[in-house]
């Protein structure tokens, strides 16, 4: 039996095995020239490198300065000309990340014990894979479990060193992701530090599930003006095939999650995405193609920021016509980041609403603690609060209801706020 080679087949395998991480070489067709691609010198990825759920690695040519004393440092970095460039036809960010793959001293096949210098993405991918295994080991040592593949991918893309922010990059670079570096150069040190920081709530590395129609949000405090970032990543279900269609911009993404950050002045910050009309540049806006989204605020002002995860469309369930959910991973870092309450211990995580759709009455309940006041609000799609009430929590479960007979038909959000915790449910009035 031959292994699958197509992107769709691999997406299905990786969806069914959420802890299996496929690290893949981008390929070495970077200098290949042809007409009909997405842009000059771009669009060289083929086959399984275009799957959504893998990690595709570019070849970085890195010069390392090794002093007699002290730690080694990077003195120069470029993407090797031979490294195959992205993006995917629908504008997905590919490759995902870059690792050292030029003049790597490694074993060869001359003798059973011989070594030599080799170059190519087949050298950068193993180096990245080895680093990912070490990150898994570090995470397991601290948490007694391993990360899902989406968590690992989200973590390394979140913590990668952007080539545009790397003073050692000596070639043209572009802020944010691009079709050469992906999200940037692997920074295993920052990734490991993030895993460690999450143990003391100084960062977030968390695995969650978003149910169909849900919106999850919470606040964090940022006290210094260094970069503040949040990322989500998920293993998406396999989509349809588009064989024989040249440069199709139809998104391969099936379950489209959205990540936003809002500051106290209601300024909304959007994730990165590639700009197909102006490649290789990236812009910030609504990303409808990638199963990883990263929002970053370069110089945040001190204060509270709200992180919100929602989704478009309907999550398909296991049977035709049913609805489901989507597992996702959340990574948050920032200078002197403080998290008022652990998102993994959110008292509002048990929030339930019924019936939905509703005609005249909405019922709700959530786990709570006594003597805690919870603000309940019903908000329309224009952001107007049509109902607001403070409810004092009980000793175990708090129940409530809202008479909706006087409200217009349509879609609303039922919002619960308990201190620095916030959650939403989408409700339909008919």
List the SSEs and their pairings.
Layout: H1 7-16, E1 23-25, E2 55-65, E3 73-79, E4 97-100, E5 104-107, E6 115-118, H2 121-143, H3 149-159, H4 188-197, E7 204-211, E8 214-222, E9 228-233, E10 257-263, E11 268-269, E12 272-274, E13 282-284, E14 292-297, E15 303-311, E16 325-334, E17 337-338, E18 352-354, E19 361-367, E20 373-380, E21 385-392, E22 397-403, E23 410-418, E24 421-429
Parallel strand pairs: 1-2, 2-4
Antiparallel strand pairs: 2-3, 5-6, 7-16, 8-15, 8-17, 8-24, 9-14, 9-16, 10-11, 10-15, 12-13, 18-19, 19-22, 20-21, 20-23, 23-24
Helix pairs in contact: 2-4, 3-4
Question: What does this protein look like?
Answer:
The chain is mostly beta strands and 430 residues long. 40% of the residues are buried. The protein folds into three domains: 159 residues, Peptidase S8/S53 domain (Rossmann fold), CATH 3.40.50; 143 residues, Jelly Rolls (Sandwich); 83 residues, Immunoglobulin-like, CATH 2.60.40.3080. It starts with 6 loop residues before the first helix and ends with a strand. The chain is globular. The strands form six sheets. Strands 8, 10, 11, 15, 17, 20, 21, 23 and 24 form a nine-stranded antiparallel beta sheet that branches. Helix 3 packs across helix 4. Strand 5 and strand 6 form a beta hairpin.
